[in-house]
Amino acid sequence: MQGIKDNSLQREYRSLDIPALPKFSPKEIKEIRKKTCVNRKIFATYMGVSYQTVCAWEKGNKKPSGPARRLLSLLFQNPFLFQDGQIPTNKSI
User: Fold this and answer.
1) Angstrom distance (rounded) from CA 23 to CA 66
2) pTM of the predicted model, to two decimals?
3) Angle at the Cα of 71 from the Cα atoms of 67 and 75, rounded to 5 degrees
4) 80-84-88 Cα angle (round to 5)
5) Residues 43-67 as b or e (16 or more Cβ within 10 Å = b)
6) For 51, phi and psi rounded to 5 degrees?
7) CA–CA gap between residue 58 and residue 75 (Å, rounded)
8) Residue-level pLDDT at 3
9) Among positive and negative, which fits the CA dihedral 61, 23, 64, 39?
10) Are 36 and 79 in contact (CB under 8 A)?
11) Which residue ranges make up each domain of the chain?
12) What does the DSSP 8-state code read for residue 63?
């Protein structure tokens, strides 16, 4: 992280190195879902999308949006993210 100073406002802004959003093929999306050990319906609930959307991603009829791609990248790194309780649910809020 680097600091950037704006002399006119006397504030320091920090820049973050945020990785680019990865793109996932239908096959990769299905593999990520299978590694989470849940069916499409539960996976859709975790992702905040409909069952039909997950089916469309896995068939290649639709592509995940930016937030969904970010969540897929987190699940790719840790397939048990949901089970570990690291993602809040309505019950835990």
Assistant:
1) 9
2) 0.72
3) 165
4) 110
5) bbebbebeeebbebbbeeeeebeee
6) -55, -40
7) 15
8) 53
9) positive
10) yes
11) 20-88
12) -
pLDDT digit string (tens) for 26-60? 999 999 999 999 999 999 999 999 999 999 999 99
Residue holding tokens 């050990």? 37
Q: CA-CA distances (angstroms) from residue 34 to 1, 3, 15, 39?
A: 35, 42, 36, 8
Helix H segments across the chain? 26-35, 40-47, 51-59, 66-77
Identity of the residue numbered 83? Q
d(CA 69, CA 81): 15
Task: Please give the structure tokens belonging to residue 58.
Answer: 């896995």
| Options 3.40.630.30, 2.60.40.230, 1.10.10.10, 1.10.260.40; CATH of 20-88 | 1.10.260.40
User: Looking up tokens 């989470």, which residue turns up?
Assistant: 36
